[in-house]
Amino acid sequence: VTFDQSNGLLLTKSLLWISCLALNCTINRKSLFDRKHYFYADMPAGYQITQQRVPIAVNGMLVYSHFEGRRRNQVVTKSVKIKQIQLEQDSGKSLHDDEQSQTLIDLNRAGVGLMELVMEPEMCCGEEAAAAVRELQLILQALGTCQANMAEGQLRVDANVSVHRPGEPLGVRTEVKNINSVRHLAKAIDYEIQRQMEVLQSAGKVLNETRAFDSKSGNTIPMRDKEGLQDYRFMPEPNLPPLFVYESKASVPAGVDPAQVVVIDRLSAQLPELPSVKRTRLVETYGILQEHSFTLVNEDGLMDYFENVVQTTKAEPRKVIGWVIKELMGNLNSQNLKVSQSPISPCALAELINLAESGHISSSTAKQVFQEMWKAPEKTVGQIVKEQDLWMINDKEELQKICRRIVDSHPEEVQIIRRGNKKVLNKLMGEVQRETKGRTDPVQVRAILEKMVS
Amino acid sequence: MESPTITASRSVSRRGEKRFHVEISKTGGGEVVAQGLPAWLSTLSAGPASARGPESASPQPPTRAAPNTAQTCRHLHSKVSQALRDGRVSATELCRKCIDQIQRTHYLNAFITITGETAMEQAQRADNRIRTGKPLGPLDGIPFSVKDNFCTENIKTTCASKMLKGYVPPFSATVVQKLLDQGAVLVGKTNLDEFAMGAGSTDGVFGPVRNPWSYTTLYREQSTEDPDSDWAISGGSSGGSAAAVAALSSFLALGSDTGGSTRNPGSLCGVVALKPTYGLLSRHGLIPLVNSMDVPGIMTRSVHDAATVLRILQGRDERDSTTVQAPSTPPSLPEHFDIRDICVGIPKEYHAPGLSTDTLAQWSRVAAMFEQAGARVQEVSLPHTQHSIVCYHVLCCCEVASNMARFDGLEYGHRSTIDSSTDAMYATTRHEGFNNVVRRRILSGNYFLLKSNYERYFVKAQQMRRLITEDLKNVFRSGIDVLLTPTTLSDAARYTDFIQEDNRTRSAQEDVFTQPVNMAGLPAVTVPTALSRRGLPISLQLIGQTLQDWKLLTVAHWMEQQVNFPMIHLHGDSDERKLDRSVRERTHTIGS
């Protein structure tokens, strides 16, 4: 995990601790740095500063949920232990130019601090891992640690995969790198599980190796030949003294400025609302489905959008959620837009929902108006309804006239209905809807039509 | 490759070779052994065994008497910075004189780069400030030089290695920048052992540094050989900086001190050399040798000057996490100071085999001086000191192996033309770039750090390091203020003799008295006390408590005033009079 460094070093530091707290870790009061040596062009010092002996934090827990069941709407909550969180140096990036057979190295990130989380082997398929990483992304975004975008390398995931028979110890593991999205993570793991099982079933041996995920083929391929076992020749990093953190202001020793050190109490108080808490609150406050709470929290800005609409409309939150999830997200997804780029503001959507709720436009018209608003965001809801003459026909006489016309022009259908097949009434209703461009209340129309044909 | 079994150096171990796997004694070391001047010190120095026995009983130098000039110099109070401010001398004049002197003494090979042009520009700016009455401080307009392992912006930095050929740093080391910010004028980068690995300044790619004192009348008169074949080493690894200050071509110089690299050449070249408390001065921009022991060293012509420079350089640097807040220091060393309040410890383990009679005599003489002046002098014991040099070598090699890994030919410096593969390029670049001293230490260090060896070497050496530190702490806790020891076993060796042994052997001999201080991170200063029979400087070392650098310098200042160390007179320098008196001024050259 990289840090959003736009706010300076001090904030970056506190983001580290806050991240550890958010992941329920025990923070070590004193942590140590070590050097890990190896020659690789992307590591210009010839070693990486990491934390081999005493990391920043240990024994954390990440709680995540994923969906099961045929309609994938059954929420299953699981957890994975976080073994440790350590601070270490990022490396450079090698870019291989096969045509000119040369390697270019981008050192811009080399030496910059990043946070590494080591999870225990407790997940059993690609989907679980993907859900866990997704939850981690949401937590990191909520904390402001970073955007956790995998494609941009802000969050990188290496998957360690092994297979074993029930009751037997864990098998030999491989490490899969080069995974740049949550979707690819699931794919890479599932491929690797399958591959290892096939290897074992054909009496082969799984090698302890590093493999790369190839997103085009969906396969994993051996990455670098490690030329036997690497001896990293670890030693304590002499340039970085131990890192101390303090429980509370009172535990800061005399002579140390409390403003210049990390005080856990102070940071705990700064913890924002975490995604799991948000979801529970949404379900309890608005009575929406649990699966909808996931969508609201997963999409950046969607929860705020939803709550904004709910506050400015008289409609039930359960009705609003339908608009937000189906119409808004449907349109955003088809055009690959973010919530913040929506042409329809929460206010405008609330206005539209209000018109439908109060019966000034029909619900089918409302959906039509929504699409018009999407195309012409500069126009108000009222303008569109007026221009396209979409107001609901509430005049009883006019409705009667229209219905009469339809009944008169469909004698055959009327005959069928009169013989007892009430289903055909729906066809007549559809004709009325077409005639009025959906500007009628179906309940009213049905009542009138029923009267006329009886 | 060196044998993996480390043996104690013969100059330390009294029982000959010693396995490295030392039994760690449970008994605490570092206690006061006896009150008063140790018997062995007074007996030896006064006894018939000593060549200069009768003399050394008196406070007079047991060796050659100092020339008369020394006496007068000590009492001159014309300070260069005052002269600058008074307009008696200009910064540009001073700078030109130093550059002239560098050129006149080019045979010393003290400099790798002379920055004449930029120096004159800096001096010009200093003159403008001084003329308008706005000098930046006591160092404004003062010429200085810097060991060539400190990064200097836009000035090539070589570490006397082929590996850093063509490297021009884009920034200056914090300590260099602090001097520049004070208006000090950088006249050049000085010679050293490759990557500061050595104790002679004989193992650099630019050749050995010669000791200016081997070009004095006194030395030359005793020599039957050509000045080009018979000369003494400068000591090292900061030999260039020491020679520059000794030969009067700089008023101050920066060295680096990992196991004695500032104090050793300072001692052999007869200048004041301070190794401050670890962490008091920033190491940012000092190309690392052993991060946990490296400190920038200060070399000057007087203790007073060293104090002035220390005051400017000390303090926290956010670019070096190991730096600490400096204790508050008064503007200058106290003029009136009662030596009777001081307790001087004489560590008996420093009376080591190989210690020359001249050096022992000086040690005895100065210890007696302290005692006669009313200071308490006590013999103390540092029982783990004898294991220090072996452990130092293990730790040094480990960090060297790690720190040298960055020199791979990719980012800067030398790159081999072999490019059949990246690995081949690394290997040949490093083989071509490093001398065999550096290569050996890398190889040994990597061996010690192997997973299977780590506990046996690195961890054991660190445990011993803690015991050595505890010894010193205990001594200071018992009431000792400073320790008085020799800095080196003897005066400077002749170059042709010195190179008879390899770098590792020489380092073990030369660093024996200096590196325990680096292991413990304590401050130490070496002050020249007299000339040997060969006419070469002999110096003594004072060791202080952590962050008590100022107190250490106060005692050193007192000692400096008592010993009457002579001025240098370079042989055949017929134009001596041309050198401004202020340039030759030894004591109190800089200062407010």
UniProtKB/TrEMBL annotation, chain A:
<dbReference type="Pfam" id="PF02637">
    <property type="entry name" value="GatB_Yqey"/>
</dbReference>
<dbReference type="GO" id="GO:0032543">
    <property type="term" value="P:mitochondrial translation"/>
</dbReference>
<dbReference type="InterPro" id="IPR023168">
    <property type="entry name" value="GatB_Yqey_C_2"/>
</dbReference>
<dbReference type="GO" id="GO:0070681">
    <property type="term" value="P:glutaminyl-tRNAGln biosynthesis via transamidation"/>
</dbReference>
<dbReference type="InterPro" id="IPR004413">
    <property type="entry name" value="GatB"/>
</dbReference>
<dbReference type="Pfam" id="PF02934">
    <property type="entry name" value="GatB_N"/>
</dbReference>
<dbReference type="GO" id="GO:0030956">
    <property type="term" value="C:glutamyl-tRNA(Gln) amidotransferase complex"/>
</dbReference>
<keyword id="KW-0547">Nucleotide-binding</keyword>
<dbReference type="GO" id="GO:0050567">
    <property type="term" value="F:glutaminyl-tRNA synthase (glutamine-hydrolyzing) activity"/>
</dbReference>
<protein>
    <recommendedName>
        <fullName>Glutamyl-tRNA(Gln) amidotransferase subunit B, mitochondrial</fullName>
        <ecNumber>6.3.5.-</ecNumber>
    </recommendedName>
</protein>
<dbReference type="GO" id="GO:0005524">
    <property type="term" value="F:ATP binding"/>
</dbReference>
<comment type="similarity">
    <text>Belongs to the GatB/GatE family. GatB subfamily.</text>
</comment>
<feature type="signal peptide">
    <location>
        <begin position="1"/>
        <end position="22"/>
    </location>
</feature>
<dbReference type="InterPro" id="IPR042114">
    <property type="entry name" value="GatB_C_1"/>
</dbReference>
<feature type="domain" description="Asn/Gln amidotransferase">
    <location>
        <begin position="304"/>
        <end position="453"/>
    </location>
</feature>
<comment type="function">
    <text>Allows the formation of correctly charged Asn-tRNA(Asn) or Gln-tRNA(Gln) through the transamidation of misacylated Asp-tRNA(Asn) or Glu-tRNA(Gln) in organisms which lack either or both of asparaginyl-tRNA or glutaminyl-tRNA synthetases. The reaction takes place in the presence of glutamine and ATP through an activated phospho-Asp-tRNA(Asn) or phospho-Glu-tRNA(Gln).</text>
</comment>
<keyword id="KW-0067">ATP-binding</keyword>
<comment type="subunit">
    <text>Heterotrimer of A, B and C subunits.</text>
</comment>
<dbReference type="InterPro" id="IPR014746">
    <property type="entry name" value="Gln_synth/guanido_kin_cat_dom"/>
</dbReference>
<comment type="function">
    <text>Allows the formation of correctly charged Gln-tRNA(Gln) through the transamidation of misacylated Glu-tRNA(Gln) in the mitochondria. The reaction takes place in the presence of glutamine and ATP through an activated gamma-phospho-Glu-tRNA(Gln).</text>
</comment>
<keyword id="KW-0436">Ligase</keyword>
<dbReference type="InterPro" id="IPR017959">
    <property type="entry name" value="Asn/Gln-tRNA_amidoTrfase_suB/E"/>
</dbReference>
Automatic annotation (TrEMBL), chain B:
<keyword id="KW-0436">Ligase</keyword>
<keyword id="KW-0496">Mitochondrion</keyword>
<keyword id="KW-0067">ATP-binding</keyword>
<dbReference type="Pfam" id="PF01425">
    <property type="entry name" value="Amidase"/>
</dbReference>
<dbReference type="GO" id="GO:0030956">
    <property type="term" value="C:glutamyl-tRNA(Gln) amidotransferase complex"/>
</dbReference>
<comment type="similarity">
    <text>Belongs to the amidase family. GatA subfamily.</text>
</comment>
<dbReference type="InterPro" id="IPR023631">
    <property type="entry name" value="Amidase_dom"/>
</dbReference>
<feature type="active site" description="Acyl-ester intermediate">
    <location>
        <position position="261"/>
    </location>
</feature>
<protein>
    <recommendedName>
        <fullName>Glutamyl-tRNA(Gln) amidotransferase subunit A, mitochondrial</fullName>
        <ecNumber>6.3.5.7</ecNumber>
    </recommendedName>
</protein>
<dbReference type="InterPro" id="IPR036928">
    <property type="entry name" value="AS_sf"/>
</dbReference>
<dbReference type="GO" id="GO:0005739">
    <property type="term" value="C:mitochondrion"/>
</dbReference>
<dbReference type="GO" id="GO:0070681">
    <property type="term" value="P:glutaminyl-tRNAGln biosynthesis via transamidation"/>
</dbReference>
<dbReference type="GO" id="GO:0050567">
    <property type="term" value="F:glutaminyl-tRNA synthase (glutamine-hydrolyzing) activity"/>
</dbReference>
<feature type="active site" description="Charge relay system">
    <location>
        <position position="147"/>
    </location>
</feature>
<dbReference type="GO" id="GO:0032543">
    <property type="term" value="P:mitochondrial translation"/>
</dbReference>
<feature type="active site" description="Charge relay system">
    <location>
        <position position="237"/>
    </location>
</feature>
<dbReference type="InterPro" id="IPR004412">
    <property type="entry name" value="GatA"/>
</dbReference>
<dbReference type="GO" id="GO:0005524">
    <property type="term" value="F:ATP binding"/>
</dbReference>
<keyword id="KW-0648">Protein biosynthesis</keyword>
<comment type="function">
    <text>Allows the formation of correctly charged Gln-tRNA(Gln) through the transamidation of misacylated Glu-tRNA(Gln) in the mitochondria. The reaction takes place in the presence of glutamine and ATP through an activated gamma-phospho-Glu-tRNA(Gln).</text>
</comment>
<feature type="region of interest" description="Disordered">
    <location>
        <begin position="44"/>
        <end position="69"/>
    </location>
</feature>
<feature type="domain" description="Amidase">
    <location>
        <begin position="93"/>
        <end position="553"/>
    </location>
</feature>
